[in-house]
Structure formats: structure tokens, C-alpha cells
Amino acid sequence: MSYVDEVLELVKKKNASEPEFIQAVTEVLNSLRPVVEANEEFYKKNAILERITEPDRQFMFRVPWVDDKGQVQVNRGFRVQFNNAIGPYKGGLRLHPSVNLGIIKFLGFEQIFKNSLTSLPIGGGKGGSDFDPKGKSDREIMAFCQSFMTELSKYIGADVDVPAGDIGTGAREIGFMFGQYKRIRGTFEGVLTGKGLTYGGSLARTEATGYGLLYLTQELMKCHGESMEGKTVVVSGAGNVAIYATQKAQQMGAKVVTCSDSTGWIYDSEGIDVALLKEVKEVKRARLTEYAAARPSAEYHEGRGVWQIKCDIALPCATQNELLLEDAKQLVANGCKCVCEGANMPTTIDATEYLQQNGVWFVGGKAANAGGVATSALEMSQNSERLSWSFEEVDAKLQNIMVNIYHNIDDAAKRYGMEGNYVAGANIAGFEKVVNAMLAQGVC
Ligand code: NDP
Ligand code: 2IT
Q: Which of 42, 303, 347, 368 is the most exposed place for a label (fewest CB within 10 A)?
């Protein structure tokens, strides 16, 4: 049995109840085969694959808080510190009822490779809770965030582990958590990113993941002799990533005709009205039915369905495993040329393979959505030097990082004879840097 297969078997056995983690590891290790097989004895002797698939440590803790009726509620909190070979652990906090250890581990594992691709010094980590922010008052959100941070504060720090936002965690939650960290530790430091602009946040961090996704997509199109101008784009999600991806795609001259949330989706023949979407989702925190009610050109549909709309480009920006094999078939049948992932692991492995086999240019989330965490690392730099850069300066750095990521993953795929396989290119390029650092630092 090859070394890759041996480790895959081991990971499946040791983490049998964590399907998302197994999925993420399977995708990465399969695509690393040419690299590992070129030097199998060496990788095996150093147990590189066993070490990179086992987190440095993982914390699970009780999060008690009091709701508006005076009832005590208990949630489960997580932080997985996966790998700090190239910098402090870095990765978001997801607040969603579906959160469990396996989901946080898959996200933390992917973050190692993504963060390496940014070219900035950040290791991989992730955290969150099964707390559901939907329908909670601001006071309940604060009570939860303070309790969550009371425990989390023991394990993080500006040079140790720097959490940020993810699903369900935005500026409001980061603010409450930052305040609690400051109270407990007594230090004003860059311990979280995605902070408000008046207390150490970076301009362009809010927009960064969506904008970065489009900077990379635009470079990919350009390198294939195409542009964004006049293209029809289908986006899923209606949160932070989806909103700013839609805005930047429109600024580039494309027409985005869909968005979705966990209950339904919108088809808007005139193109999504970003100002209205922001009002519905960021201000009112309401359902997409409110978007449809205010917009005559929009149709609202219950359930899922954005991938059935004819498009040139598809950008999944909601959550994991939201683009299935049947969706991939529909996209190909409708002539879609390009799929770039704004979310983490939104496309299943069989759907990814179908898209690649049918000539769709496919870039996975580890490369395509790296603009968010890259800009978080720029926020860390600004905090360290106690300065704030202008929007234009941060945005220019973000563009540069995303264009470089595209060329880096394209080159890595070509080096191993897999031209056009950007999934393999991203995993290989991300892996090489981390492994170099791990080897240099000895057995740890
Ligand atoms: P938000 O919470 O802002 O938005 C998430 C969106 O996805 C919402 O529209 C939500 O619907 C929808 N959604 C969430 N879970 C489900 C589900 N189980 N089924 C259907 N729809 C769902 O999160 P973000 O925009 O920040 O994150 C979106 C994705 O991007 C995630 O995969 C995240 O890990 C990834 N990502 C985020 C980065 C960031 O900087 N924020 C950086 C890189 C990746 P509803 O409104 O109903 O909840
Ligand atoms: O998945 C991700 O890269 C994020 N949620 C952003 C992490 C960060 O530290 O900015």
C-alpha cells in the first residue's frame, strides 16, 4: 500500500465520526500523490502526513449564558489549533447549530494550506460553537460572546492564535468578544481580526473575501483569453462573502442573477441589487422573501436551486457540500465555464471531478477565498506597527496577493504535469511551504 493510502486509512479509522474532516483530508492527500510519491521514503520516515493531519491541540468547552427569559442556556465551544509551522494559528469562528468537532477540524485543516498560499506568516486554526445567532437579541448575542471568550481567552493571543469571523460571526460578535478579551487579559492587542475600524480593524477586511474571490476569478478568465465583462454569474449565499463577491463582479461588468440563504433563493433577471441585499441581510437580518417583496424583477423560490440557472460563472459562497454532482451536471449542460469557491469546501469531491473532467476551470476555496484571511494578516501587520493603511493600500495588496495565488497554483500544477488542475496546484503549493518549515523545525 502506498504511503498516502496508509495515512488515508489511518485518518479514516481515527476520525470515523467526522465525515467532513475525512472529505477534506482525502481531497488534499489524493492531490499530493505526485509530490509524495516522488520522495516517498523521505516523507514516510519523517511522518509528514501523519503530523499534518493531526491537530497540535483541540479545545472543547461549555459555554453557559442567560437568555432574555432568564433561562440558562448551554452551548459547546471549540478551538482547534492545527498547525503553526509558518505563523500563529489563524482562522475564523463559526457560530451555527450544525457546528461539531469534525466540521471545525475540516475547516482548520484547510486553513493550513490556504494560509500558506497567502504568502503571509499565518498558521492554521478554526473554532466556533453550535450556538444559533438567528433570532437572538443583541443582549443574548453579547451574553453568549462574553461567555465564549471567557474560556477561549486562555488559549489565544496576538502571537499565539488569532481568531476572526466566519458563518454567523461578523463585526458585532467580534466586537463583543474583543471587549471581553480585553477585560480578562488587560491588554489591547490584535488578538482578533475583523475588528471595527475605531479599535484596530482594517479597511477592506469586510469586503476582502468576496473581492479577493473576484480578483482571482478575473485573473483566471484573463489567462484564458476571457474577461468578466458581460458574463452571467450565479452566486449562492447572502452573507459576507456572497454580498461582496456580487458587488465586485458587478463592478467588473458582470451580471449576478442569484443569491440564496438557508431557506430559499432569488432569481433576479435585472441583476442583484446589492444595496437592497445589504439592507435585508446586514441591517434587518431578515429572510430573502423581503428582498423579493421589494424588487419587482426578483422571483423567490423555497429550498435550493441556484445551480439550475444558466450562467458563465458559478461562485458558491454559502457553506460546505452545497454544490452536488447533479448540480455540476446542470452547470456543465448549461455551458458554465468557470467555478470558483467563495465558501469552504462547497463542492463535493464527485462534483469537483465532474466539473474538471468536463473542461470547467475550477478553483477550490483554499485558493479562491484566501483573500479574507490574507487581509486579516494585513490587519495583524497594521496592529503590530500601530498604524492604519488606507482602503486603496489594503485593496491593492489584496489584488496583488490574489493574482499571485492564481499564478502560484497554476505553476505548481504545471510542475507536476497537471496543467489546469488548480485544486492539485493549490494543495501542492500550500503544502510545500508548510513542510519546509516543519522539517526545518525538527520533530514537533
Ligand atoms: P455569513 O454567515 O455571513 O453568511 C452565510 C450565508 O450562507 C448565509 O446566507 C446563510 O444563510 C448561508 N448558509 C449558511 N449555512 C447554510 C446552510 N447550512 N445551508 C444553506 N445556506 C447556508 O458567512 P460568510 O459569508 O462569512 O461565510 C460563507 C462561507 O464562506 C463559509 O463557507 C465560510 O467558511 C467561508 N469563508 C468566509 C470568510 C470570511 O471572511 N467571512 C473567508 C473565507 C471563507 P442564512 O442567512 O439563512 O443563515
Ligand atoms: O475561512 C476563512 O478563511 C475565514 N473565515 C477567515 C479567517 C480569518 O482569520 O480571517
A: 303
